[in-house]
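During the no-cost extension, the postdoctoral fellow (Dr. R.K.) reprocessed legacy sequence entries with the updated structure-token encoder. One reprocessed record is reproduced below for audit purposes.
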Amino acid sequence: GAEVLFSVDCAKLEEYFLPGKRQFDCIYFNFPHCGRKAGVVKNRELLAGFFRSCAAVLAEEGEVHVALCNGQGGTPADRPRREWHNSWQIVALAAAAGFILSSVHPFKAETIPGYKCTGYRSQDKSFRVEGALNHVFTRSTPPLCFTPVSCQMQLGNQKVSFQVPQVLVDKINRGFLDPDSNHPVRTIREKLSAGLSQAFPLQNISSCLPLLHQGHPPGVGHSSVFWVTLSPEEAPGAEEASQGVADAVLFSRGGFWQHTDENVHKGCPIPEQFYLRPSLLPPALAIIHEGAFPPGTLHVLSGPVFRKCRITPRSIPVFHEMLLVLAVSRGTESSCIQVLVENIKTTVNSLHQAVSGIKPSMNLREAASLETELSDFAAFECQLGEIQHFLCLGTGTDPSGCCVGVIRTAPHGLDSTELVLVSASLNLDLLAMLLCGISDWRMLWTSDRRFLRQFPEGELRLFESFSLYPPSYVHDVSFWVPDGEEFDEVAFHTLAREVSGEMVVSIQLRDSFQQPGTGRRSLCYRVTFQSCDRALGCGEAAEMQLRLREEIRQHLGVTLR
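Re-encoded structure tokens follow.
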């Protein structure tokens, strides 16, 4: 009952099948070869044409199976593994056609009835298939859309809009914490809340948190936050802003700016700049100053926060923060912290053991013990105010622990001298990565549906990547820094994020040179492009590098070399 076609050109599959018969669920190509003594270059060209052709005839969720002899593919699954330049580079060739490697397993000829390997050097001779591998490719999600996005919101009694920073376009309003979400960050938040409710009365106040803040965040560097500009025709003037800033948290350079009639009548200047919230702590302080904060109740705030940071596997420009705030009697703060931390540790340890079967180590470390090894998350938290303890979670692959939270006490945070404010800030994204074995934070924000399918109905599981051995492309960029200016590395990394759509996985300083006589300084950086969830071809990475060079020339004032 099968239809058999002969003499089919593997690089022109669409020419042999009518449009109605092109949606194949599986396409198999066992041991492709140009014939005779063709070298790796010719066989790469054959594979490249084959993958381009498959894109036209494969069903949306179909698979392409390619069997190669041991060592030909060039992936870490090969034993032994060939040098990259001497392999067929199958993953990179597939990526150029929009495919990702989703599985690789041994090719077992004996399991295929009637199969016989033949064709050695175009002859009726068999060839060795010991150690051969079957590579299974699937379609990647399409490239990200870089269309500018505007966000509208209510600021007091007025509607305003602003353009979302390019690097956050695919991350704004994703709804990971919504009631109908089964994203791991929501599951972890719900589990933590359930555990904490056993020890404290809980009140959730996340629904009234402002997205925009106004002025300048105290203690935080200007280059560490995402600044936005309201649309000119809708930007409130000083008088309008003073009448309707209920949904904005106001700051002056000296600290918290309280919007009161007294301040307005005194002529206190109202800040004009707006930025996306980098923390939930300032909104919590605002609620406290409004008096809506009864003692003895653990108040829970959660939502996304936005911070500019360098590119590393665990440096996240937007993540979900869970802030726990509790007012306690003076002198009891230490015991309250102990109860709070023990409750968090019990819940996290239980989740980790249920997911991986291994008991993790969650420990409380004094602030002084981490001064020389602060992560970007911990370093930013230090800018927001003094920290008493760091919460660190250790796993099998990282027993020393990664900082996932901080504990603070604020003796002057309340009007009452009899009360002390205790707060705990938790990074839900880092917790999800460590608990579910996710090595790259970008996977939490993927639009590929295969990610959330692994967490049905909010169940936490060990994550299995659907994109194996993604190809990486290394480019160097060298430039002269403007005289007398300090080079802003965070701005450089942020531009790389924007240009590549988070396809840059590493930026390393390779060389710093000062020209004798003139004193001009030159920097050379190595930029590595690699995606964790979708296809990235060599040509696409090269185009990103060219755009990055132009962007840093325009925005950072450097002179390219």
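The chain has a mean pLDDT of 84. The first helix runs from residue 40 to 57. The remaining legacy entries will be reprocessed before the final report is submitted.
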